[in-house]
Each structure stands twice: as C-alpha cells, then as structure tokens.
Amino acid sequence: MLSVVKISLTQFKNYTHRAFHFSRRIVGITGRNGSGKTNLLDAIYYLCFTKSYFHAAESQNVQYHTNGFRLEGYFLRGEKEEKVVCTVKDGKKEISLNDEPYERFSRHIGQFPAVMIAPDDAEIILGGSEDRRRWLDALLSQLQPGYLDHLIAYHKILQQRNSLLKSLVNMNHSPDPLLDVFDEQLVQHGAPVFEARRAFLSGFIEQVQERYDYLAGRHETVAFRYQSQLHEHSLEKLLQEHRLRDKQMQRTTQGIHRDDLLFLLDEHPMKTSASQGQRKSFLFALKLAQFEAIRAHKQFPPVLLLDDVFEKLDQERVSRLIALVQGPGYGQVFITDTHGDRLQQAFAADPGVLQLISMQEEGA
Prior knowledge:
Layout: E1 2-12, E2 15-21, E3 26-30, H1 37-49, E4 68-77, E5 80-89, E6 92-97, E7 100-101, E8 114-117, H2 123-126, H3 129-143, H4 145-167, H5 177-216, E9 222-227, H6 235-241, H7 243-249, E10 260-265, E11 268-269, H8 270-273, H9 276-298, E12 303-306, H10 309-312, H11 315-326, E13 333-337, H12 340-346, E14 354-358, H13 359-362
Parallel strand pairs: 3-13, 3-14, 8-12, 12-13
Antiparallel strand pairs: 1-2, 1-4, 4-5, 5-6, 6-7, 9-10, 10-11
Helix pairs in contact: 3-4, 4-5, 5-6, 5-9
C-alpha cells in the first residue's frame, strides 16, 4: 500500500511553514475557504507529479514576497519509507528521491501515483481539447514510463518545426531537408503516443460506465470517441501531404497534438446535452475509473485526493462515494470540507478510519 506519512511546506502558496503528520487511511482536512485546504492537497500532488495540479506557472505556487518554496514529503511504499523533496528557488526547480536528485523529472512520474478530483475538473468536459489531452496524458504517464518521454520529445520537436515553418512563409515550394528531419522525429515519438492512447481507451469505457451507473443510481449509456487524424492515415503521410498548408499556416496542422475525446451520454455530446448532475457523475466516474486503472497496473491503490466533494455532489452521490472509498481496493484518501462535523458524520460507521485535521488549529 502507498501512503503519505508526513509533509512539510515552506513558502508554498499561503503556507510560511507548516508540517503535517498523517496517521489514518482517511484524512479529512477542514477549515474555512481560503485557509489552505486545497493547497495542502496540491502540495501532496506536487510531490507525486513534480508540478501543481492547478497552476502551470511556478510563480503562482510561491508565497507572496518570497523567491521560492520547498516541499518535503515522506511516503510509505510497502514497508519502505521514502523521502521526496521539491524545491523551487529563483525559477530553478530541483526534485530528489531519498536525497538523490533527478536529472530528468519524468523519471519520477508514476513512482508515487495519485488521483486528484477537484472543482476545475469540469473543464475536462466543458473546456478545449487541450484539457482532455492533459487528463489522458497524466494518466498514461503513470502507467507507461516511456509514454511521457515520447510526449516531451514530440512537443519539443513540434516547437522547432513550427519555428521553422514561420521562417519559410515566403518559400512555399522550396525543398527543405530540415523539415524532413523534423517529420521523421515527430513520427518516431508521435506514433507510440497515438498507439498507447488508442490501446488504453479501447477498454477503458467499461470501467467508466460501471462507476457512472453506481454513482448516478441508474443506467445511462456513457461513451467516448477518440478523435485522431492518425486513425485513417499514418503520421508520416499526414505530414507530407499537408506540408504546403503547414507552411501557409505557419504551424503544424497534423499530429497527436490535435487529438481529442468526444464524451457522449446516450449518444449525444455530453458537453451540450448533459445536465450538471450528469456531468458531475461522469467526471467522478472518469476519475474513479482512472484510479482503478492505476491500481490494477501498479498492484496497489494510488493516493486519492478529493477536493470539496460535499459541495459538488448531492447527498445521495456523496453517500455512494464515501461507501466506495471505505471499501476494499482503496488506500489512503484525503478529503477537504468546510465542515468537520459533516466529515465525521460521513464516516460515522467506522470512526476509527478517519483522521481530522482542522486548518485553524494547525495555524495554516
């Protein structure tokens, strides 16, 4: 089993310096809005993924009027305690595992798997294709170590190719050997990403459907379509056939960076036809199926981070969710809520499983 034993936060968001110890399988974090509940979850997520769940810019993770932050966490993985330290100072980031710095941060992903469910997750349905790719890439990066390496390399080459295309705007018909090199490299790294996405998604919907029916309390058919230009043609052929258009557009118009997922409810686009309750059920089902996929692959459950679920779900769905995470197959779970008594009531059937942390008492 994987669990977080303790964590210390220095100059991370609203924390000057705080340390927390976690002693139970279910950890409830209570306090008023703005007290740091979500930031604590994000710190745990950061130690698992080397980045914030909420903010891409490191400047948004640093406490105001400071030049960096430090996170130190101790994880229990099986019988072994392991130490992860993340520091950002003057824009430079360092990550270490058991005091050994990583040369490549991608090597850390999947070591300490976690799943976050947060209010902003609605963008997976309502947002653009980038939000759905980001969700899928974060999942597959925890399952397949080489996936993230291919993805990072692909996007680096994509940027170089786009820069070259901008410089060739007045040379539409001229041969360019450098474009041939970039195309070959894009195929080398893009094709494995496409195959990994296609293979994983082909059976994943069954897990989502099962959890949707459970949370919703009734059956409605959910599905998704993996939309990719590579279904019909190889990436090599697409890049060749659209090279002239790419020069005219000054960007790469074909490739895995254009992939999308179309979520469906009873064969209608969920983005426009589903109710708010249906979308919430689907999002939770999607994340819980993600949890199950990681658990099955790793042979132990990932850490589950639930932010503000009592405000997002009705009482019936909350009760089903609580019953689920208390059952077999789930490991350490962190849940935030503004009301401690609501958490105590939710786990009243097994009060010994719950550790309650009040942010006011902790002085965060």
